[in-house]
């Protein structure tokens, strides 16, 4: 479990730096928008391209990935139904809330969890590809269409195609599928630029915590608590049921699916919410709460299911 604790500590430290900068008034709340734009238009596309270009796209069709996909669909649908009936009619806000209920922090916490809790790092790559090639494009497509509003049909249809994250993901997947060898002089600067993506997102997240307090009145507390409960408790439970009883996977894969289902919400959700100016507080607070809850939940899963 040492690796998991280290992973959490690294994330917490960078977030703390952002929070301290905001509290010391070195940066303002508006400055987080600059960090977010740099991450969204520059660093994140570089990161996604390099990750996907070096991955094996075929692993997306494994049983473990099917469990992860169905788990996400289940918690997202539960959130959409409840939020639409009880909380809000805002499509963009609902889309952000539903995604925070199932989109996992595979990049930062998933790797140490896979190595030190599951004992096999192979589960990280497929989940990253599932989220980048399937889940993120769907969310960004919805947000692009909502943002387009009364634009022409052609403008709405082509809006996602102008999204830098989607373009980078598609190009990276094509490189992986074709086996194209990218020269090192091309990959090296992309690697440097992509390395800034996660720190920029974490710093922007930390700066946001220096503003309004989490779970403040009028922030959508019921939406936040619903998404947090779905991500922290319902998601791993659904993953376990699917792996154990529906697909009847071996015990070690059931354990892996359940542990990965307990990962907290990814910082990407706050980046997307901030970029599209919808559900920012919901995304921020769900990320914070699920990150706090994920460690005890994963420890419980490891205690109950470790083969």
What topology does this entry show?
Blueprint: H1 2-23, H2 31-53, H3 63-86, H4 91-100, H5 106-118, H6 124-148, H7 153-158, H8 164-178, H9 184-194, H10 197-209, H11 221-246, H12 251-261, H13 268-276, H14 280-305
Helix pairs in contact: 1-5, 1-10, 2-8, 2-9, 2-10, 2-13, 3-4, 3-11, 3-12, 4-6, 4-13, 4-14, 5-12, 6-8, 11-12, 11-14, 12-14, 13-14
Account of the 3D structure:
Helix 6 packs antiparallel against helix 8 (164-178). The chain starts with a helix and ends with a helix. The radius of gyration is 19 Å and the shape is globular. It has helices at 2-23, 31-53, 63-86, 91-100, 106-118, 124-148, 153-158, 164-178, 184-194, 197-209, 221-246, 251-261, 268-276, 280-305. It contains 14 helices and no strands. The protein has one domain (2-305): Up-down Bundle (Na+/H+ antiporter like fold), CATH 1.20.1530. The chain has 307 residues and is mainly alpha-helical.
